[in-house]
User: Fold TLDc domain-containing protein from Entamoeba nuttalli.
Amino acid sequence: MSNITINTINNYGIISIHKNASYQQDNLDTKTQRLIPQKLSGFQSSESVSKSATQPQTPCNPANSFLEPYSKSCSSPADNLKKVKTESTILNPSVISFLSKHHKQSSLSTTKLRRQTVDDTIIKQKSPGKTNPSTTFTPLSLNLFQGPFEIVGLSKYETVLKQWIPSIQMKLIYDSSQQFFDSRGFNEKVCGRKNLLIIVVSGKSIFGSWHSKQIPKEKKDGFVYVKNDENHFVFTLRNIYNINPTKFLPREVNKYSKSLCLSGSKSSTCIVGCYSCYFVETLDNESTVDWSFSSTYRDTSGKGHLIFTGKQAFTTDRLLAFSV
Assistant:
């Protein structure tokens, strides 16, 4: 019996499956809730399918294991002929559908995870009965072969960001589509860190800021600031004016100069802001861009504060934070 090796590239990186050619997938369509590695076991050689298509099939026994020899297959010849054929493998349509659905996770999603109550009650999930605490970020454990910008759909801006930021590697530490979209969820991930990249997504606009100094601990009922950060800057990656990615440096930096502003976890709506630039709020159309932007930063775009979203008030669709 020959062995085959199948390599496939998808949202989870490069996955290798080693499987004996005399074994085939057993009733995969009824196993939709199994883990990824088990679903990927549905790959089989074209030789195996051609054999099973011509041999009599025995009735399906629910007690049978997920993978069994072809002589015990639950698939009918007609079912086998429906499978999608590639150069060297047969892929069950449910495998293709499953992988395609999860591959889309790397697009620039604008889903936000919100707390239902202040005591962290269960958030509704696609998988019933599971909770999603603010300390959990599932894609980081699944996208083992992807970079942090590729995971969140920002790979096209990775080159320019690495030109601006003197860092070899960045780590995604906060994503509002995976952690709670509030000040507590954000502060849990960023306080105490330094070399922080913040990216804000609003509609088709993408912008943010870079902060090199250590982020102080939060004040539960107030604001804390990062000051005197000589390496700080703000930037636009995508804007309504189709101006290329541009960074804006502060006009002056001294011991009184404020850059990052963090809201305490008792704040009802405010999360984070960049002084004289933007402030992120949880409510729709309550986030703002400061009209005094051009007086604090060297505006080379000529658009003033409108360069970021085209208006002063906007809705934050997604908030991301990366750290070295």
In short: The chain has two domains: 3-105, 107-323.
